[in-house]
Amino acid sequence: MALLAKSFRALGDPTRLRLLEFLLTEEHSVTECVRHVGIAQSRVSTHLSQLADSGYVRVRRAGQFAYYRVADHRVADTVKLARAIAADNATALIAAMR
Q1: What angle do CA 93, 21, 90 make, to 5 degrees?
Q2: Is there a contact between 68 and 48 (Cβ–Cβ < 8 Å)?
Q3: Each residue of 48-61: b (16+ CB within 10 Å) or e?
Q4: Calpha distance 60→63 (Å, rounded)
Q5: Structure pTM?
Q6: For the chain, what is the domain count?
Q7: CATH number, domain at 55?
Q8: Quick check: 33 and 48 in contact, CB under 8 A?
Q9: What is the pLDDT of residues 38-90, one digit of tens each?
């Protein structure tokens, strides 16, 4: 259960989810990820490291540059399923946020 909870914690941040969705279709550099999410490079790198440490993304280094991509096709399925569950339970989730 502890591992399962850790895997959900890795997905439990809006910025990490945005990065995952961005990386679903193709590999992107850190610079591209920064442009996509609109936060500081250091924060993006931290989020990408957390996703990599959890096994959700892979990093490829080329000189000074790092390129990230989703490590497992099941990540896309997980994100899509979580989106559908959230949409189906939107009213309850919004109420729980108050």
Answers
A1: 15
A2: yes
A3: bebbbebebbeeee
A4: 10
A5: 0.86
A6: 1
A7: 1.10.10.10
A8: yes
A9: 999 999 999 999 999 999 999 999 999 999 999 988 988 888 898 899 999 88
Domain extent at residue 76: 6-97
Neighbours of 44 (CB within 10 A): 23
User: Is 22 a member of any domain?
Assistant: yes
| Total number of residues shown for the chain | 98
Does 86 reside within a domain?
Answer: yes
Chain position carrying tokens 């280094």 = 61
Contact (Cβ atoms closer than 8 angstroms) between residue 67 and residue 27: yes
Greatest alpha-carbon span in the chain: 48
CB 92 within 8 A of CB 30: no
Does residue 1 sit within a domain? no
Do residues 20 and 10 make contact, with C-beta atoms less than 8 angstroms apart?
no
Q: Is the residue at 28 inside a domain?
A: yes
